[in-house]
Design goal:
By secondary structure, the protein is an all-alpha fold. The protein has two domains: 80 residues, Rna Polymerase Sigma Factor, Chain: A (Orthogonal Bundle), CATH 1.10.1740; 76 residues, Orthogonal Bundle (Arc Repressor Mutant, subunit A). It is globular and about 55 Å long. The N terminus is likely disordered.
Length: 178
C-alpha cells in the first residue's frame, strides 16, 4: 500500500531494501543493457523513485516483485530514450554544420522530446494518433475523422484531450525552468 506523502520517511526500511535488493537489480540490468555503468545508474534510479514515492510492502517477496517491475520499467524507459536520442542524432548528422544547435540546446531538445514521447505514450491510442495526424501531418479534423473512421465530434474530443495534456506538460516544463 502507498505511504501518505506527509508520513515520516522510513529511512531504515529503504536502507534495508537497498541492501537486500540493489545487487540483484544492478546485475539484472547489466545483463539486459550489457553495460555496467548504465546498469548502476538505472539501479540507483529505481531507489530514487522509491524514495520519491515511498511504499510499505507486505513481505520480502512483495518488495522484490515491485522492485523488479520498477527495474523493468526503468529499462524500457532507458531503451526508449536511447532510441529517441539516436533518431535525433541521425537528424543532426544530416544537417549542415552551421545549423547544428549548441550542446546546451541539444540537451534541452532531447529532454523535451523525451517528455513529449512520454506524454504521447500516456495518452489513449486514438487521442495520440489524432494529435499526431493534426500536428505532424497537418490534417484537418474532417480528414482525421475519415482516417480514423470516427465522427468529427470524436476527433474534436481527442484533440481537446491532447491539448490538455500539452498544457500540463508546458506547466511542468515552465516549473522545471524556474
Amino acid at each position: 500500500m502507498n505511504v501518505p506523502h506527509d508520513a515520516p520517511a522510513l529511512g531504515s526500511d529503504l536502507e534495508n531494501l537497498y541492501r537486500a535488493h540493489h545487487g540483484w537489480i544492478r546485475q539484472w540490468l547489466q545483463r539486459k543493457l550489457g553495460n555496467a555503468s548504465d546498469a548502476a545508474d538505472l539501479a540507483q534510479d529505481v531507489f530514487v523513485r522509491l524514495l520519491s514515492k515511498p511504499r510499505v510492502f507486505n513481505d520480502a517477496e512483495h518488495a522484490r516483485a515491485y522492485l523488479g517491475r520498477m527495474s523493468r520499467n526503468a529499462c524500457v524507459d532507458f531503451w526508449r530514450r536511447r532510441q529517441l536520442e539516436q533518431a535525433y542524432l541521425d537528424v543532426l548528422a544530416a544537417q549542415p554544420e552551421h545549423q547544428v544547435p549548441s550542446l546546451e540546446h541539444q540537451a534541452i531538445i532531447l529532454e523535451t522530446l523525451g517528455q513529449l514521447q512520454a506524454m504521447l505514450e500516456r495518452m489513449p491510442k486514438r487521442v495520440a494518433e489524432a494529435f499526431c495526424l493534426a500536428q505532424l501531418q497537418g490534417m484537418k479534423q474532417r480528414e482525421i475523422a475519415e482516417h480514423l473512421k470516427v465522427s468529427e465530434r470524436s476527433v474534436n474530443s481527442y484533440l481537446a484531450q491532447a491539448m490538455y495534456q500539452c498544457l500540463l506538460l508546458e506547466v511542468e516544463l515552465d516549473g522545471a525552468l524556474k
